[in-house]
Write a structure and sequence with these properties.
Two copies of one chain form a homodimer.
Chain A (H helix, E strand, L loop, with lengths): L8 H25 L8 E6 L4 E6 L4 E6 L9 E4 L5 E5 L4 E6 L4 E7 L3 E7 L5 E8 L3 E5 L5 E5 L2 E3 L5 E3 L2 E7 L3 E6 L4 E6 L6 E6 L4 E6 L5 E6 L5 E5 L7 E4 L22 E3 L2 E5 L5 E6 L5 E6 L4 E6 L5 E6 L7 E5 L5 E5 L5 E6 L5 E6 L4 E6 L5 E6 L3 E6 L9
Antiparallel strand pairs in A: 1-2, 1-34, 2-3, 4-5, 5-6, 6-7, 8-9, 9-10, 10-11, 12-13, 14-15, 15-16, 16-17, 18-19, 19-20, 20-21, 22-23, 23-24, 24-25, 26-27, 27-28, 28-29, 30-31, 31-32, 32-33
Organism (chains A, B): Marinobacter azerbaijanicus
Protein name (chains A, B): Cytochrome D1 domain-containing protein
Pfam families (chains A, B): Cytochrom_D1
Chain lengths: ~400, ~400
C-alpha cells in the first residue's frame, strides 16, 4: 500500500492534532463509561419515585452514575450476577432490568408480568426467578440473556372449587440450585429444583395466607410469615420430609390486624449468636427467639413498630428501622446486653439499611430527606452523606456471594 | 499557543499514521491487559515451586493469566482489597506482593522481613498486616501504597531474662479494625487496634507455644493451637476482660508429638450449626465440639491425619484433606449424620480446597499432579480440571468480604 498526502503541512498538523486529541477523548469517554475497576465495593441505590438507580462506590462514598428508565420502582429489590458486575432489578410493574455497574447502563429489560414483588438468583448464577402478583406464579429467566427458561403458574383450587393462579411471595434461592417461595392464596410453600432441566416442583402445606418469608444465612430454614393466623411456618430444607411446622405460635398478635403491606419485612430478621431478632407485629418491640427450640426468650422495647431488624456482619449490633409515623429514627441494640445503645436520626422516612460486607459502615436511606447517610458502626457517627432522589432500597454487590439474598 | 510544522507532508503523514496506529495499538493492548470485567468470580492459585500465581475465573473454569516473580511461595496465602481487584500475596521469604487481577500483573512488592508466615487485611481495607518469623513481630502497611504504617516488634523477656522478638503466628483481622495474633516464644495473644493512629496493643497471657490460630466467622472467638501443651487458648473478643481461657483440654494429645509444621491448620476448622469440626492431632479423626461449652461430642474416624477440615458455605458438608502419606484423597462428611458420604481422588498430594462463595462448587489442588480439580458439591462429581504448576493455596476474591480471611 502506498500512501500519498498532498495537503499543506499546517492542515495536516491541524488534522493530526484534531484526530489524536479527538480520538483520545472518544477513547477516554468510552473507557470511563466502562471503567476498568474492581466490582467488590460497588452497589445500587433504588430511587423509587424516578425509576432510576444510583451506582455507588462504598470505599470512596461516591456516586459513579445514575441509570434511568427502570419503570415503577416503588417496591424494588436487586440481586447480583456471580461476577458482581450485573444487577437484576425487580420492579413493581413486572419489569426485570439487567444493569451493568461498570458502564452504568441498562443491558436488557423485560416486562415479565403485570405486578411483581421480588426475585432471586440461583446458587450457580445461571437463573433469575421472579415472584409475581399478577397473574401470579413464578417465572425463571436465563441470567445471561433474560430468555424465559421456566414458568410455574402456581395454580391452586380454592374452597369453592375454582382454579386460579396464586400470588407468590418470599421467593429465595437455596443450596442445591433450588428456589423456594410461598403461595398467598393457596397457603403453600413450594420448592422449585433448577439443578437440571426438569424444573421439578415439590409442594408443602403451610399456614394461612403467607405474606413474606426469609431463609437463614446458611440456607437451611425457610420461614414464612402468615397474614391469616398467628405464628409462622417453618420448613427445614435439610429435612423436608418432616414438612412444615409452626413456630412462635403467638407471633402476629398485635392490638389490631395490620394491613398486609404494613406487616414487617421478613428478610429483615436478624440471626445472631443462635438467636433470631424479630420485629413484633403491632407492638413496639423486637422479639428475641432461641433458634434451637424457637421459644421466645426476650422482648426488647423500641420506639415504634419495627420494619427492618438487621444484624451487623459481626452480629454485635442489631439495627432497627420503623414504620410510619415513627420512621425518622433508627435504633441500635447491643446484641449481648440487649440494650438500646444509640438512637440515630438519619432523616425523614427511613426506608432501608445495608451494611458494608465486613461491617465497618452501614448505609441508611431517608426517602423524604433525599439522602443516604453512612455511619461508622464503631463510633455510631455519620461519616458521609450521599444525595439521592427519594432513595429506598440499598444493595451492595457482596450479595452476589451470599445465599438467600 | 501557535503550532508551526515545517516537515514535509509525507513525513508528517507517516508520523500521523504511526502515531495513530501505534497509539491505538498501545491503547488496545493496555485495555485488553486490563480487561473491563467484574471481579466477583476471580481468584488466585499459588504455584508454590515457581513463585507464580494463576489468575482464574470460577464462572468459566478458566485461567486468565499467570503472574511471575513473587519469590518463595512455599507457604503462601492471599488477602484481597475491598474492591476485590487486588490480591496481597504473603510469601515465605518475607515478600509482600500486591497483584492486580484485572491486568494480571505485579503492582508493587516489598521484602518486609526475612521470613513471614501470613497476613491479614483490616476490616476497613486500609491496612495490610504481616506476621513474621524473622526477625519476629508484625508489620502493618498501607494497602494502597505498601508504605510501612506501624511496626510491632513483639518483644518479650525469656525465663533467662533475655529480651527478644517473638515469632508471630495466627494473625487475623477482627471487627473494630483490630488485628489479633499470637506470640510463639512469649506464649501470649496480642490485640492491635488500628481504629486510630495510636496502634495500641493489648496483651493477654495464653498457653505455651501457640503455633497457629483461627477466628470464628463472626469475628468473636480467637482460638490458638498450642504446641507446648494439650488444649487450646480461647479469647472472647466480645468480653476481652475475661482473658484467655483453656478449651478442649485433651486437644493436642496424639500417639507422639508432631513437629510443629505437621500440626493441622487452624484456619481449616469448620464451624457448622453450632458445632466446631476440628482436625485431631496425631489421630485419624475429625473431632466434633459443641461451641456452647466446647465439650467434645463426637469423633469421626477418617482415613488419615486431617489437615484442612472445611465446611461448605451451607454447612451441609465437611470436606477433609490429609497429611502425607495419606494425602491423595479428600473425604466428604455429611454434617448432619456425620457419615463419610464420599472419598474422592483429586490427584497426588492434595494441599488445599476452596469453595465458591455460594458453595455450588469446590476447587481442590493436587500439587504433584500439577492440577486443580473442580467438583460439583451436589453430585460430588468433577466438572473441570485446571492445569497448574505445583498448585497449593486457592483463594477466591469473595474473601474480600469475609471477616478473618
Amino acid at each position: 500500500m502506498k500512501l500519498e498526502f498532498n495537503l499543506p503541512g499546517k492542515l495536516i498538523a491541524a488534522l493530526l492534532l484534531a484526530f489524536v486529541l479527538g480520538g483520545c477523548q472518544v477513547f477516554t469517554e468510552t473507557q470511563s463509561r466502562s471503567e476498568v475497576m474492581g466490582t467488590g465495593d460497588l452497589g445500587l441505590i433504588i430511587e423509587r419515585a424516578s425509576g432510576s438507580v444510583l451506582v455507588i462506590n462504598t470505599s470512596r462514598h461516591e456516586v459513579l452514575g445514575r441509570i434511568d428508565g427502570l419503570g415503577d420502582l416503588s417496591h424494588a429489590s436487586v440481586v447480583y450476577s456471580r461476577d458482581a458486575r450485573y444487577g437484576y432489578v425487580f420492579g413493581r410493574d413486572g419489569g426485570l432490568t439487567k444493569v451493568d455497574l461498570l458502564s452504568q447502563s441498562v443491558v436488557d429489560r423485560v416486562i415479565q408480568s403485570g405486578n411483581s414483588i421480588g426475585g432471586a438468583i440461583s446458587q450457580d448464577g445461571r437463573y433469575v426467578a421472579v415472584s409475581n402478583y399478577e397473574p401470579g406464579g413464578v417465572k425463571v429467566f436465563d441470567s445471561q440473556t433474560l430468555e424465559l427458561v421456566a414458568e410455574i403458574p402456581a395454580t391452586y383450587t380454592s374452597g369453592e372449587g375454582q382454579v386460579g393462579q396464586s400470588k407468590t411471595v418470599g421467593l429465595v434461592d437455596a443450596p442445591g440450585n433450588l428456589f423456594v417461595f410461598s403461595l398467598f392464596e393457596a397457603g403453600e410453600i413450594w420448592i422449585l429444583d433448577m439443578s437440571d432441566d426438569s424444573a421439578e416442583v415439590t409442594r408443602f402445606e403451610a399456614g394461612e395466607s403467607p405474606y413474606d418469608a426469609l431463609i437463614t444465612p446458611d440456607g437451611r430454614y425457610y420461614i414464612a410469615g402468615l397474614f391469616g393466623e398467628d405464628g409462622l411456618s417453618l420448613l427445614d430444607l435439610w429435612n423436608p420430609a418432616q414438612g412444615v411446622t409452626e413456630i412462635l405460635p403467638g407471633y402476629g398478635k398485635g392490638e389490631q390486624k395490620l394491613p398486609v403491606y404494613k406487616m414487617p419485612h421478613l428478610e429483615g430478621w436478624a440471626i445472631a449468636d443462635g438467636r433470631a431478632f424479630v420485629p413484633a407485629v403491632g407492638h413496639h418491640q423486637v422479639l428475641v427467639a432461641d433458634m434451637n427450640d424457637w421459644s421466645l426468650v426476650d422482648r426488647i422495647p423500641v420506639q415504634g413498630q419495627p420494619v427492618f431488624v438487621m444484624a451487623s456482619p459481626d452480629n454485635r449490633q442489631i439495627w432497627v428501622s420503623f414504620a410510619h409515623p415513627n420512621n425518622d429514627v433508627v435504633q441500635v441494640i447491643d446484641s449481648q446486653t440487649r440494650d438500646i445503645v444509640r438512637t440515630l436520626e438519619p432523616g425523614s422516612a427511613v426506608l432501608h439499611m445495608e451494611f458494608t460486607p465486613r461491617g465497618e459502615e452501614v448505609w441508611v436511606s431517608a426517602r423524604d430527606s433525599n439522602r443516604v447517610t453512612v455511619y461508622n458502626t464503631r463510633t455510631l457517627e455519620p461519616v458521609a452523606t450521599i444525595n439521592a432522589e427519594k432513595p429506598s432500597g440499598i444493595f451492595f454487590t457482596s450479595r452476589a456471594h451470599a445465599l438467600g439474598l
